């Protein structure tokens, strides 16, 4: 999301997080960061395959993901926790229903077009595509919208991702998301509320 801090501006020209600083090199956008790290550190081939067609499948999913899963899943967190925290007012239930309907359509496409009957998105091994997908889909879970509950195929895919990453690391990585509701108990500076409330509301339009 956006950040107005001076430090963020030095790392990312877009003043957004996540951002990476590697020596004198800086980079924004999570997908670009993942691809950069996988290339720099020569990660195991299954994460971003050297086979040109398998790599293209990862790229295909990442391109689709941004305008579909990512366009809906994080909004559940904003609607249920973050916007009420900064505005002091809950959003109408219709807003969450609208987002969940859009997400449901994307999840149907995800299962039918990308996952199909495979263990992971591009085949028998986990890839960056699976990591990007799972992080987004854990956000609704963190605010009580379990997208896996009535979707056996999706639920089994999540289990395989957990096993491939390692359950301890998986839940450590998602600890903040799974405990996001605890933010509703913190006190926000009134001036910060005034500055961020309009920005957050605009993000849902």
Automatic annotation (TrEMBL):
Q: Where is the GST N-terminal domain?
A: 1-45
Q: Per its UniProt record, what Pfam families does this chain match? A: GST_C (PF00043)
Q: Subcellular location, in the record's words?
A: Cytoplasm
Question: Do you know which PROSITE patterns this protein is assigned to?
Answer: GST_CTER, GST_NTER
Give me the reactions it catalyses.
RX + glutathione = an S-substituted glutathione + a halide anion + H(+)
Keywords of this protein's UniProt record, alphabetized? Answer: Cytoplasm, Transferase
Q: Which Gene3D superfamilies match?
A: 1.20.1050.10, Glutaredoxin
The positions making up the signal sequence are: none
Gene Ontology CC annotation, any one: cytoplasm
Q: Please report the stretch or stretches of sequence annotated as the GST C-terminal domain.
A: 51-192
Instruction: Tell me the superkingdom of the source.
Output: Eukaryota
Q: Which GO terms describe its molecular function?
A: glutathione transferase activity
In terms of one coarse class, where is the protein primarily found?
cytoplasm
**What's any GO biological process attached to this entry?**
glutathione metabolic process
Q: What is its EC number?
A: 2.5.1.18
* Classification via InterPro entries: Glutathione-S-Trfase_C-like, Glutathione-S-Trfase_C_sf, Glutathione_S-Trfase, Glutathione_S-Trfase_N, GST_C, GST_C_Theta, GST_Theta, Thioredoxin-like_sf
The family classification in the record reads: Belongs to the GST superfamily. Theta family.
Quaternary structure per UniProt?
A: Homodimer.
Protein name as catalogued: glutathione transferase
Which species is this UniProt entry from? Loxia leucoptera
What is the name of the gene encoding this protein? Answer: Gstt1_0
């Amino acid at each position: 999301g956006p950040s107005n801090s001076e430090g963020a501006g030095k790392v990312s020209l877009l003043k957004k997080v996540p951002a990476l600083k590697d020596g004198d090199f800086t980079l924004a956008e999570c997908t670009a960061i993942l691809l950069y790290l996988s290339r720099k550190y020569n990660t195991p081939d299954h994460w971003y395959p050297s086979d040109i067609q398998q790599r293209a499948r990862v790229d295909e999913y990442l391109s689709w993901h941004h305008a579909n899963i990512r366009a809906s899943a994080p909004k559940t967190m904003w609607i249920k926790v973050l916007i009420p925290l900064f505005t002091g007012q809950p959003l109408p239930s219709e807003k969450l229903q609208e987002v969940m309907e859009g997400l449901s359509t994307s999840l149907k496409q995800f299962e039918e077009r990308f996952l199909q009957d495979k263990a992971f998105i591009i085949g028998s091994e986990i890839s960056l595509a699976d990591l990007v997908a799972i992080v987004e889909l854990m956000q609704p879970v963190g605010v009580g919208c379990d997208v896996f509950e009535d979707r056996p195929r999706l639920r089994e895919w999540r289990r395989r991702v957990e096993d491939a990453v390692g359950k301890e690391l998986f839940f450590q990585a998602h600890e903040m998301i799974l405990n996001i509701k605890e933010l509703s108990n913190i006190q926000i500076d009134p001036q910060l509320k005034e500055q961020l409330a309009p920005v957050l509301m605009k993000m849902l339009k």
